[in-house]
Predict the structure.
Amino acid sequence: MMISYIGPDGSGKSTAINYSVEFLERNKISHKTLYPFNYFILRKLINFFQNNINLSSTVQKKKNLVTKNKNVVIKIFWPIFALIDSWLWYFYVTKINSKDILLCDRYFHDLSTAFDEFNLAFSFLNKFYIKLIPKPDIVILLSGEPLELQKRELGDCHEIDFFERQVKRYQDLSLKDPSIVVLKTNFFKEDIERIFKDIYGT
């Protein structure tokens, strides 16, 4: 079984996982925590090109001339590359962890909000990506008020308007997918326990 915890920065995903781990260990249930927010194969390719390709000044000038076209190409193809990468990760981790409960600290829903924030995908491609990502058995969305999330964020690196945009994006996700379980940040400890008790009948 795979359970993913999604939500804006500061919403308490790691804390919710800690509550989940406490329950699983208390009941002697095998589990593993995963962090699928980064790319699987794409990250290796990105690092390779960043570390091994140096553009000459001539190439750099040409690069500047085609920036606009390049951005369009990225918007068209990046969500497709990311979708393939997501499925490769999914098959890999489910195969090697077939006997464990998998707790995902972030999931590919979170990646779609990053596409939106950094303008990496056209709207229709982002919807296509969300529709076709590998689905966990349970998706738990942790959320709260923007000001509350900003106070809870580690590193204190985002302005309030960032959290307002994020809260709206996650609300939209939950409205489009009624299977997503929505929990408010301040009250989710009892809710997490209830979810796991429902799963295991304890």
In short: The first strand starts at residue 2 and ends at 6. The beta strands are 2-6, 31-34, 101-105, 138-143, 181-184. The domain at 2-200 is CATH 3.40.50.300 (Rossmann fold).
